[in-house]
Design goal:
Two copies of one chain form a homodimer. Chain A contains eleven helices and twelve strands. The first copy, chain A, is an alpha/beta fold. A seven-stranded parallel sheet of chain A has the order 8-7-6-9-10-11-12. Chains A and B meet through helix 5 and helix 6 of A and helix 5 and helix 6 of B.
Chain lengths: ~325, ~325
């Protein structure tokens, strides 16, 4: 007789999402093999587009779901204790007034580091080499050399210094840049060379040869890089956004790019996504459109499951979970 | 009274070349200030498009000239001992049968390292992220996510391991790749993890996730990556060329890109340059056209002058010069 009854874990996916993010039976089976002892403590159901959701909620203790049900959750899911989302940003779930007090929400922050580091290094090198303009010239069959000094020794301002900001910082240090972190608290450790609280963002921006936005979307970060702040960034600098689109005023950014005030922008996030075919961003000069790929690895769900099992190990041991979303801060 | 008569140095530029490469009076004056003692030993003339070339040759001991005069040089320049070219590749000057036995030819190999390192890192990251295809999709306003694993741990084959090959190797190691060097001699030091002689190129190519060509153009490297060899490269790999265009069969490369056999190519060198507007390479899918900028810094001539003065110091001290072109090898 087992010492404890099995816990019910429900996995829920939306079939219309990119298959990369599907919580499939195959991926679960492979993960359960890698974490055999812990997996034995679980009874698992796998649902798609809500097909078995209501029945599953009745007995579920645990759930992995990028878009958890928010109506009358406590009533429908009396035993539910912990919801894991598949993404890092939970702005689409805010405000968290739907989340009953007894349910913990964890996100997947931390899964994006290695890819984000590559993407930031790539964006810094592309912007430094004036590649957005070179690519525009290629479209028009124009040979237009742009000569630039090496990137080493230049300065990047990284806004937000969580999982993605740290990755941006590591990428920049690897390339020999000076890293100025801008954080809510005004605190940041390595690899930042200097740190400013967000209240002093206006003082940090003029120092930047490059600005990388990595913040989650919260009421405090929405519109943070507005027109006035974008205009404080020096001529010829480059902008990267791997955080959330509404943190930057893209209309103002577009105007600056149109008049050639910046060397370019590499944007990975948009509102809405997919970016509609008639968006003027697609052919804004100096703008590179990345279709929200900068931080995602094809092994994404495998890594999510591994991280979830690690946290589940803490759960069964009665230790505090990692990646708990702060209800007030929203990340 | 000076111990030795001043030596006559003639600087010759073509006004139609990019101003980046002009040996201007201002740049010379700044360099002469940085190397005051050595500069005092020189009488300098500065010519453009051959305007004073014949008169200058009569008394010149030394010359810096990217395109030295090749007809009856000994007769026209009886005192000439040393010609410095402004570029690294001297394929356009080959064969060297025009160069009298008593004149030393030096090139500017070694000036391109820092920029080449940046460009190789950028190209590796762009190819790994499938950016050439993402950029093609952007042209068509298509949101087409391509998810890839981080670049670290993948393998790059670097063909040629001189100044540019070493830079490619450093870039790759910084990003965590395994580096296989392919050299004439079959010898290469750090940062190569393995080395193959060019006679075993066919064994090296199938190991590559990325191939970077950095060789000079010589009779031995012309057509080195022909159709048969390109077809040995595995599906989904990426190609970079910062060496010379004729080392790769671009027609065969284009066919492979058209059928999607490779993730992409980043090419910085073409034949002829500038690439003509009607070249099919401009809009070959998966191909990024860089207008011969990957290794050049806007401070190029300043750095050339500094390197020349260092070599001139050796010359007056009777020590062997650096960067002497091997007449047989052509680099």
């Amino acid at each position: 007789m087992p010492k404890t009854a099995a816990l019910h874990l429900h996995l829920e996916s939306a079939s219309k999402r990119n298959p990369l993010f599907h919580l499939t039976e195959e991926r679960w089976a492979a993960a359960a093999k890698r974490h055999r002892a812990l997996a034995r403590r679980l009874t698992v159901t796998i649902g798609w587009d809500g097909d078995i959701l209501d029945a599953a909620l009745k007995t579920a203790d645990l759930m992995i779901n990028s878009n958890p049900p928010r109506e009358r959750l406590r009533e429908r899911a009396p035993r539910l204790k912990w919801i894991q989302t598949t993404g890092a940003g939970i702005d689409a779930l805010m405000p968290l007034d739907w989340l009953p007090a007894g349910i913990t929400l964890t996100n997947n922050s931390g899964a994006h580091g290695a890819k984000a580091e590559d993407s930031c290094a790539m964006a810094l090198l592309m912007l430094n080499a004036q590649m957005p303009r070179v690519l525009n010239a290629q479209r028009e069959h124009l040979w237009r050399p742009a000569y630039t000094t090496p990137v080493s020794g230049k300065t990047v301002v990284v806004i937000g210094f969580g999982d993605l900001g740290l990755a941006a910082g590591r990428a920049a240090k690897k390339l020999g840049l000076k890293v100025i972190a801008v954080t809510r608290s005004g605190k940041a450790g390595r690899p930042a060379d200097a740190v400013y609280p967000v209240s002093r963002l206006d003082q940090a921006l003029p120092k930047a040869d490059f600005v990388i936005v990595t913040t989650p979307l919260t009421p405090q970060t929405r519109g943070l890089l507005n027109r006035a702040r974008l205009e404080k960034i020096k001529a010829g600098a480059g902008i990267v956004n791997i955080g959330r689109a509404p943190v930057i005023d893209y209309i103002a950014l577009r105007a600056l790019l149109e008049k050639g005030a910046l060397s370019g922008a590499v944007l990975d996030v948009f509102e809405p996504e997919p970016l509609p075919p008639d968006s003027p961003l697609w052919n804004t000069p100096g703008l590179v459109v990345m279709p929200h790929i900068s931080c995602d690895d094809p092994r994404y769900i495998d890594m999510l499951f591994d991280r979830w099992f690690e946290n589940f190990g803490r759960h069964v041991a009665g230790r505090p979970l990692r990646n708990i979303v702060d209800r007030r801060l929203g990340y």
